[in-house]
């Protein structure tokens, strides 16, 4: 009798789980997936114990992103900066940030950093943007950059709102990294703060992969829920964490006799713009707003990142607003 009851309970649980699986799939949920499209792309990142990943040195060729698109080329130099052209001048301007700063989906000469380099003969423009980086990885990257460079006169951090999510390794961001893992995204470091809003640096973590998560929508759902719960407390403080990261960027820049500017590269909501405007004013931080324009022609079809035309607009805006670039 006891065995019968256990068997009945077991099969009831199995049936219940199957029903949940069916319901999840009929409502759009799927097992964990990897973006197979990126398997046709060159691998442009390598694992890094501190940064999670870093740009892969070499010349990378990308097929057109759409039927009417064109082949693009991404060149990562030995110091892991993107090629911008220009002469090897001692005085340097360093750009850090994510894929918009890097210039994802446009060729080397089409990035706003290359366009700026063509406009100035007084400074060497170094593009240390990296695909997928948020503010925290950019800060860690900047620490390495200063160890290997001198005569850096200005650091410009290209900020987009999604960096706040990346900074704290939010569950949703961890899922996307797992989805695009064929681009070399595996682990990601994250930041948190103590009760005094001091920055806490945390080592890279990776997305949880439960057994059969790639076969079951239910298990994939559990993976997402676990990652969301683990990052919940950090996500609630993401704006405060972003401010702590930017303050650290300012400190390390000043320590190395460099100036710092916060560069806004995407539209901010009115409330977020007010928050950042108040923050930079209170902390005497220079901020420039050169967001990528929206609309037809300003994004790469089939990808969504800013096009060459958008990069031209961004470059012109930066050149006008950064005094040392256009001073005689």
Describe what this molecule looks like in 3D.
The protein has one domain (36-326): 3-Layer(aba) Sandwich (Rossmann fold). A 5-stranded parallel β-sheet has the order 6-5-7-10-11, sandwiched between helices. Strands 1-2 form a two-stranded antiparallel ribbon. The termini are far apart. The mean pLDDT is 91. It is globular and about 85 Å long. By secondary structure, the protein is of the alpha/beta class. It contains 11 helices and 11 strands. The protein has helices at residues 2-26, 99-102, 112-119, 135-148, 163-167, 171-179, 217-235, 238-255, 270-282, 308-321, 323-326; strands at residues 45-48, 52-55, 58-62, 72-76, 92-97, 124-127, 152-159, 187-193, 199-206, 259-264, 286-289. Helices cover 41% and strands 19% of the residues.
- The name of the CATH topology is Rossmann fold
Tally of domains: 1
What pattern of helices and strands is seen along the backbone? HEEEEEHHEHEHHEEHHEHEHH
Task: Specify the CATH homologous superfamily.
Answer: SGNH hydrolase
- Order of neighbouring strands in the sheet with most strands: 6-5-7-10-11
Count up the helices.
11
According to DSSP, the number of beta strands is 11
Derived from helix and strand composition plus strand pairing, the structural class reads: alpha/beta
Largest sheet data: 5 strands, parallel
- Work out the radius of gyration: 22 Å
* Whole-number mean pLDDT: 91
Note poorly predicted spans: none
CATH architectural type = 3-Layer(aba) Sandwich
CATH level 1 class label: Alpha Beta
Gap between N and C termini: 94 Å
